[in-house]
Amino acid sequence: MLNFIIRIMTRELPTTFSLYLLPADVPEILTRLKSHGLNDLQSRMFTVAKEYFSLPRDEKLLYPITKQNEGYISLGQEKLDTATQQNQAGPKLLINQKECYNILKRTTKNDVPMVLRENFPLLEELRWRCYSLCMQLLKYLATGFEINENYFTDNHDWSADGGDLLQLLHNPPTDKTAIRAGMHSDYGSFTLVFQRENESGLQVFDHLQNEWYNVEPCEDMCVVNTGDMLEYWTNGFVKSTIHRVMPLINNQEKDRYSIAFFSIANNPTLLTPIKSKFLVKDYQMYQKDEHAKDIFDYENRKSITAGEHLQMRLNRTYK
Ligand SMILES: O=C(O)CCC(=O)C(=O)O
Ligand SMILES: [Fe+2]
Protein backbone atom coordinates (compact mmCIF):
# COMPACT_ATOMS: atom_id res chain seq x y z
CA MET A 1 0.00 0.00 0.00
CA LEU A 2 2.74 2.38 0.91
CA ASN A 3 4.39 2.09 -2.46
CA PHE A 4 1.23 3.60 -3.87
CA ILE A 5 1.64 6.59 -1.58
CA ILE A 6 5.27 6.90 -2.49
CA ARG A 7 4.52 6.74 -6.16
CA ILE A 8 1.97 9.47 -5.94
CA MET A 9 4.02 11.51 -3.54
CA THR A 10 7.33 11.34 -5.35
CA ARG A 11 5.62 12.59 -8.47
CA GLU A 12 5.38 15.95 -6.80
CA LEU A 13 8.46 15.99 -4.62
CA PRO A 14 10.89 18.85 -5.03
CA THR A 15 14.52 17.95 -5.58
CA THR A 16 15.56 19.07 -2.11
CA PHE A 17 14.51 15.77 -0.62
CA SER A 18 13.47 12.41 -1.80
CA LEU A 19 11.68 9.43 -0.40
CA TYR A 20 13.39 6.10 -0.12
CA LEU A 21 12.00 2.67 0.45
CA LEU A 22 13.79 0.19 2.60
CA PRO A 23 14.43 -2.69 2.66
CA ALA A 24 14.33 -2.63 -1.11
CA ASP A 25 12.76 -6.05 -1.35
CA VAL A 26 9.79 -5.14 0.84
CA PRO A 27 8.74 -1.84 -0.65
CA GLU A 28 5.27 -2.01 0.84
CA ILE A 29 6.08 -1.28 4.40
CA LEU A 30 8.56 1.44 5.04
CA THR A 31 9.22 4.98 3.98
CA ARG A 32 12.26 7.05 4.69
CA LEU A 33 12.82 10.72 4.15
CA LYS A 34 16.23 11.80 2.94
CA SER A 35 17.83 15.24 3.00
CA HIS A 36 15.20 16.55 5.35
CA GLY A 37 17.47 19.37 6.45
CA LEU A 38 17.15 18.56 10.15
CA ASN A 39 20.48 16.82 10.74
CA ASP A 40 22.02 19.55 12.81
CA LEU A 41 18.87 20.24 14.81
CA GLN A 42 18.19 16.62 15.62
CA SER A 43 21.75 15.88 16.62
CA ARG A 44 21.76 18.87 19.00
CA MET A 45 18.43 17.69 20.36
CA PHE A 46 19.90 14.23 21.04
CA THR A 47 22.63 15.84 23.15
CA VAL A 48 20.02 17.69 25.20
CA ALA A 49 17.86 14.55 25.49
CA LYS A 50 20.81 12.55 26.84
CA GLU A 51 21.46 15.22 29.42
CA TYR A 52 17.79 15.27 30.40
CA PHE A 53 17.43 11.48 30.74
CA SER A 54 20.57 11.26 32.88
CA LEU A 55 18.83 13.32 35.60
CA PRO A 56 17.88 11.44 38.79
CA ARG A 57 14.51 9.72 38.52
CA ASP A 58 13.01 11.87 41.28
CA GLU A 59 13.81 14.98 39.35
CA LYS A 60 12.22 13.65 36.16
CA LEU A 61 9.11 12.70 38.11
CA LEU A 62 8.58 16.35 39.02
CA TYR A 63 7.01 16.77 35.56
CA PRO A 64 4.83 13.65 35.26
CA ILE A 65 2.73 12.98 32.17
CA THR A 66 -0.53 14.96 32.25
CA LYS A 67 -3.99 14.17 30.88
CA GLN A 68 -3.11 16.40 27.95
CA ASN A 69 -0.18 14.03 27.19
CA GLU A 70 2.59 16.40 28.19
CA GLY A 71 5.58 15.59 30.41
CA TYR A 72 7.61 12.62 31.61
CA ILE A 73 6.63 8.97 31.07
CA SER A 74 8.62 6.52 33.17
CA LEU A 75 9.80 3.01 32.32
CA GLY A 76 6.95 0.59 31.70
CA GLN A 77 4.28 3.23 32.29
CA GLU A 78 2.86 3.05 28.76
CA LYS A 79 0.80 0.13 27.51
CA LEU A 80 1.36 0.05 23.79
CA ASP A 81 0.46 -3.51 22.96
CA THR A 82 -2.43 -4.19 25.30
CA ALA A 83 -3.26 -7.61 23.88
CA THR A 84 0.23 -9.04 24.24
CA GLN A 85 0.69 -7.41 27.56
CA GLN A 86 -2.40 -9.10 28.93
CA ASN A 87 -2.07 -12.46 27.24
CA GLN A 88 1.58 -13.27 27.04
CA ALA A 89 3.33 -11.20 29.61
CA GLY A 90 4.86 -13.51 32.13
CA PRO A 91 5.95 -12.02 35.42
CA LYS A 92 9.51 -11.66 34.17
CA LEU A 93 8.76 -10.03 30.85
CA LEU A 94 9.67 -6.38 30.97
CA ILE A 95 7.59 -4.38 28.54
CA ASN A 96 8.01 -0.84 27.29
CA GLN A 97 11.45 -0.37 28.69
CA LYS A 98 11.47 3.21 27.57
CA GLU A 99 11.16 6.57 29.19
CA CYS A 100 9.95 9.60 27.26
CA TYR A 101 9.44 13.31 27.53
CA ASN A 102 6.41 14.63 25.63
CA ILE A 103 6.32 18.18 24.31
CA LEU A 104 3.04 19.38 22.79
CA LYS A 105 2.67 22.25 20.34
CA ARG A 106 1.22 24.27 23.22
CA THR A 107 4.09 23.48 25.61
CA THR A 108 5.92 26.64 26.66
CA LYS A 109 9.29 27.26 28.21
CA ASN A 110 7.71 27.51 31.66
CA ASP A 111 6.16 24.05 31.41
CA VAL A 112 9.38 22.05 31.06
CA PRO A 113 12.29 21.04 33.34
CA MET A 114 15.38 23.24 33.46
CA VAL A 115 17.51 21.25 30.98
CA LEU A 116 14.80 21.60 28.36
CA ARG A 117 14.01 25.18 29.34
CA GLU A 118 17.59 26.21 28.73
CA ASN A 119 17.37 24.71 25.25
CA PHE A 120 13.85 25.78 24.43
CA PRO A 121 14.63 27.67 21.19
CA LEU A 122 16.15 24.46 19.78
CA LEU A 123 13.17 22.44 20.87
CA GLU A 124 10.74 24.96 19.36
CA GLU A 125 12.57 25.01 16.08
CA LEU A 126 12.72 21.24 15.77
CA ARG A 127 9.02 20.95 16.68
CA TRP A 128 8.08 23.52 14.03
CA ARG A 129 10.33 22.12 11.31
CA CYS A 130 9.03 18.58 11.87
CA TYR A 131 5.46 19.85 11.70
CA SER A 132 6.22 21.74 8.47
CA LEU A 133 7.75 18.63 6.91
CA CYS A 134 4.69 16.59 7.79
CA MET A 135 2.49 19.28 6.24
CA GLN A 136 4.50 19.05 3.03
CA LEU A 137 4.06 15.29 3.00
CA LEU A 138 0.33 15.65 3.60
CA LYS A 139 0.06 18.04 0.66
CA TYR A 140 1.78 15.54 -1.62
CA LEU A 141 -0.51 12.84 -0.35
CA ALA A 142 -3.62 14.95 -1.08
CA THR A 143 -2.30 15.80 -4.53
CA GLY A 144 -1.62 12.14 -5.14
CA PHE A 145 -5.17 11.23 -4.24
CA GLU A 146 -6.34 14.09 -6.49
CA ILE A 147 -8.27 15.87 -3.80
CA ASN A 148 -7.85 19.50 -2.69
CA GLU A 149 -4.15 19.76 -1.84
CA ASN A 150 -4.98 21.54 1.42
CA TYR A 151 -7.53 19.01 2.56
CA PHE A 152 -5.31 17.32 5.16
CA THR A 153 -3.25 20.35 6.12
CA ASP A 154 -6.35 22.49 6.77
CA ASN A 155 -7.15 19.94 9.43
CA HIS A 156 -3.69 20.23 10.97
CA ASP A 157 -3.87 23.94 11.79
CA TRP A 158 -1.00 24.72 14.18
CA SER A 159 -3.05 27.39 15.95
CA ALA A 160 -6.03 25.09 16.57
CA ASP A 161 -6.49 22.50 19.32
CA GLY A 162 -4.76 19.22 18.58
CA GLY A 163 -2.29 16.75 19.93
CA ASP A 164 0.81 17.27 17.73
CA LEU A 165 3.68 15.92 19.75
CA LEU A 166 7.46 15.99 19.85
CA GLN A 167 8.71 13.04 21.91
CA LEU A 168 12.19 12.41 23.26
CA LEU A 169 12.79 8.72 23.95
CA HIS A 170 15.35 6.70 25.88
CA ASN A 171 15.66 2.92 26.17
CA PRO A 172 18.08 2.07 28.99
CA PRO A 173 20.25 -1.05 28.87
CA THR A 174 18.14 -4.13 29.31
CA ASP A 175 18.24 -7.89 28.94
CA LYS A 176 17.22 -9.71 25.82
CA THR A 177 13.80 -10.78 27.12
CA ALA A 178 12.64 -7.20 27.53
CA ILE A 179 10.67 -5.27 24.95
CA ARG A 180 11.69 -1.68 24.46
CA ALA A 181 8.40 -0.58 22.89
CA GLY A 182 5.52 -3.02 22.40
CA MET A 183 3.91 -3.56 19.02
CA HIS A 184 1.64 -0.63 18.15
CA SER A 185 0.56 1.85 15.52
CA ASP A 186 0.89 5.59 15.95
CA TYR A 187 -2.23 7.62 16.59
CA GLY A 188 -1.84 10.51 14.18
CA SER A 189 -1.30 11.04 10.46
CA PHE A 190 2.46 10.98 9.72
CA THR A 191 5.19 10.28 12.29
CA LEU A 192 8.84 11.17 11.75
CA VAL A 193 11.33 9.03 13.69
CA PHE A 194 14.97 10.01 14.13
CA GLN A 195 17.39 7.30 15.17
CA ARG A 196 21.07 7.39 16.04
CA GLU A 197 23.74 5.45 14.26
CA ASN A 198 24.34 1.96 15.73
CA GLU A 199 21.23 2.24 17.88
CA SER A 200 18.94 -0.09 16.02
CA GLY A 201 15.98 -1.99 17.43
CA LEU A 202 13.06 -0.40 15.60
CA GLN A 203 11.13 -2.99 13.59
CA VAL A 204 8.13 -2.70 11.26
CA PHE A 205 5.62 -5.42 10.57
CA ASP A 206 4.81 -6.56 7.06
CA HIS A 207 1.17 -7.72 7.05
CA LEU A 208 1.54 -9.56 3.78
CA GLN A 209 4.59 -11.60 4.73
CA ASN A 210 3.68 -11.81 8.39
CA GLU A 211 7.22 -10.82 9.29
CA TRP A 212 9.13 -8.18 11.20
CA TYR A 213 11.86 -6.14 9.51
CA ASN A 214 14.66 -4.25 11.20
CA VAL A 215 14.68 -0.55 10.47
CA GLU A 216 18.38 0.21 10.68
CA PRO A 217 19.31 3.83 11.33
CA CYS A 218 20.47 5.45 8.09
CA GLU A 219 22.61 8.53 8.05
CA ASP A 220 20.82 11.62 6.83
CA MET A 221 17.40 9.95 6.83
CA CYS A 222 14.43 9.72 9.12
CA VAL A 223 11.69 7.11 9.10
CA VAL A 224 8.14 8.09 8.14
CA ASN A 225 5.32 6.07 9.69
CA THR A 226 1.75 6.35 8.54
CA GLY A 227 -0.63 6.59 11.48
CA ASP A 228 -4.22 5.67 12.30
CA MET A 229 -5.67 8.95 11.03
CA LEU A 230 -4.53 8.24 7.49
CA GLU A 231 -6.05 4.81 7.79
CA TYR A 232 -9.43 6.36 8.68
CA TRP A 233 -9.18 9.04 6.03
CA THR A 234 -8.46 6.51 3.31
CA ASN A 235 -10.91 3.95 4.67
CA GLY A 236 -8.11 1.54 5.44
CA PHE A 237 -6.42 1.83 2.05
CA VAL A 238 -3.35 3.36 3.67
CA LYS A 239 -2.36 1.12 6.55
CA SER A 240 -1.18 2.46 9.85
CA THR A 241 2.41 1.19 10.23
CA ILE A 242 2.69 -1.51 12.90
CA HIS A 243 6.03 -1.27 14.66
CA ARG A 244 7.91 -2.04 17.88
CA VAL A 245 11.35 -1.62 19.41
CA MET A 246 13.31 -4.70 20.47
CA PRO A 247 16.66 -5.08 22.19
CA LEU A 248 18.92 -6.62 19.57
CA ILE A 249 21.80 -8.95 20.35
CA ASN A 250 24.42 -6.33 19.64
CA ASN A 251 22.88 -3.47 21.57
CA GLN A 252 20.75 -4.69 24.44
CA GLU A 253 23.34 -3.61 26.99
CA LYS A 254 23.56 -0.14 25.52
CA ASP A 255 21.36 2.90 25.89
CA ARG A 256 19.27 3.79 22.88
CA TYR A 257 17.87 7.24 22.14
CA SER A 258 15.33 8.30 19.54
CA ILE A 259 13.17 11.32 18.72
CA ALA A 260 9.69 11.14 17.23
CA PHE A 261 7.34 13.81 15.92
CA PHE A 262 3.68 12.87 15.62
CA SER A 263 1.50 15.05 13.41
CA ILE A 264 -2.05 14.76 14.63
CA ALA A 265 -5.20 16.24 13.10
CA ASN A 266 -7.05 18.99 15.00
CA ASN A 267 -9.43 17.71 17.66
CA PRO A 268 -12.76 18.50 15.89
CA THR A 269 -11.68 16.94 12.55
CA LEU A 270 -14.11 14.26 11.40
CA LEU A 271 -12.07 11.35 10.11
CA THR A 272 -14.49 10.42 7.36
CA PRO A 273 -12.99 8.76 4.27
CA ILE A 274 -11.83 11.22 1.60
CA LYS A 275 -13.61 11.30 -1.73
CA SER A 276 -10.89 10.16 -4.08
CA LYS A 277 -11.26 8.23 -7.28
CA PHE A 278 -8.46 5.99 -6.04
CA LEU A 279 -10.62 4.69 -3.21
CA VAL A 280 -13.36 2.29 -4.14
CA LYS A 281 -16.89 3.20 -3.17
CA ASP A 282 -17.51 -0.23 -1.77
CA TYR A 283 -16.36 -0.03 1.82
CA GLN A 284 -16.15 -3.80 2.10
CA MET A 285 -12.91 -3.88 0.20
CA TYR A 286 -10.88 -2.19 2.88
CA GLN A 287 -12.78 -3.19 5.96
CA LYS A 288 -11.02 -6.41 6.71
CA ASP A 289 -7.99 -4.94 8.33
CA GLU A 290 -7.78 -6.28 11.87
CA HIS A 291 -6.20 -3.19 13.25
CA ALA A 292 -8.78 -0.82 11.77
CA LYS A 293 -11.57 -3.05 13.04
CA ASP A 294 -10.33 -2.49 16.51
CA ILE A 295 -10.55 1.26 16.25
CA PHE A 296 -13.47 1.81 13.93
CA ASP A 297 -17.17 1.32 14.39
CA TYR A 298 -17.82 -0.41 11.08
CA GLU A 299 -21.27 -1.51 12.15
CA ASN A 300 -22.68 1.97 12.28
CA ARG A 301 -20.15 3.76 10.09
CA LYS A 302 -20.14 6.51 12.65
CA SER A 303 -17.23 8.79 11.99
CA ILE A 304 -14.94 9.47 14.83
CA THR A 305 -13.20 12.82 15.41
CA ALA A 306 -9.43 13.10 15.67
CA GLY A 307 -9.80 14.27 19.28
CA GLU A 308 -11.97 11.27 20.18
CA HIS A 309 -9.56 8.85 18.56
CA LEU A 310 -6.58 10.37 20.31
CA GLN A 311 -8.34 10.28 23.67
CA MET A 312 -9.35 6.67 23.16
CA ARG A 313 -5.79 5.63 22.33
CA LEU A 314 -4.32 7.63 25.20
CA ASN A 315 -6.82 6.15 27.66
CA ARG A 316 -5.71 2.68 26.64
CA THR A 317 -2.04 3.59 26.72
CA TYR A 318 -2.08 4.87 30.27
CA LYS A 319 -4.75 2.58 31.72
O1 LIG B 1 11.99 4.58 19.48
C1 LIG B 1 11.61 4.42 18.32
O2 LIG B 1 12.38 4.27 17.39
C2 LIG B 1 10.14 4.42 18.01
C3 LIG B 1 9.27 4.72 19.18
C4 LIG B 1 7.82 4.64 18.86
O3 LIG B 1 7.41 3.88 18.03
C5 LIG B 1 6.84 5.52 19.52
O4 LIG B 1 7.19 6.19 20.49
O5 LIG B 1 5.68 5.58 19.08
FE1 LIG C 1 5.38 4.44 17.47
UniProtKB/TrEMBL annotation:
<dbReference type="GO" id="GO:0016491">
    <property type="term" value="F:oxidoreductase activity"/>
</dbReference>
<keyword id="KW-0408">Iron</keyword>
<keyword id="KW-0560">Oxidoreductase</keyword>
<dbReference type="InterPro" id="IPR005123">
    <property type="entry name" value="Oxoglu/Fe-dep_dioxygenase_dom"/>
</dbReference>
<dbReference type="InterPro" id="IPR050231">
    <property type="entry name" value="Iron_ascorbate_oxido_reductase"/>
</dbReference>
<dbReference type="InterPro" id="IPR044861">
    <property type="entry name" value="IPNS-like_FE2OG_OXY"/>
</dbReference>
<dbReference type="GO" id="GO:0046872">
    <property type="term" value="F:metal ion binding"/>
</dbReference>
<comment type="similarity">
    <text>Belongs to the iron/ascorbate-dependent oxidoreductase family.</text>
</comment>
<protein>
    <recommendedName>
        <fullName>Fe2OG dioxygenase domain-containing protein</fullName>
    </recommendedName>
</protein>
<dbReference type="InterPro" id="IPR027443">
    <property type="entry name" value="IPNS-like_sf"/>
</dbReference>
<feature type="domain" description="Fe2OG dioxygenase">
    <location>
        <begin position="162"/>
        <end position="265"/>
    </location>
</feature>
<dbReference type="InterPro" id="IPR026992">
    <property type="entry name" value="DIOX_N"/>
</dbReference>
<dbReference type="Pfam" id="PF03171">
    <property type="entry name" value="2OG-FeII_Oxy"/>
</dbReference>
<keyword id="KW-0479">Metal-binding</keyword>
<dbReference type="Pfam" id="PF14226">
    <property type="entry name" value="DIOX_N"/>
</dbReference>
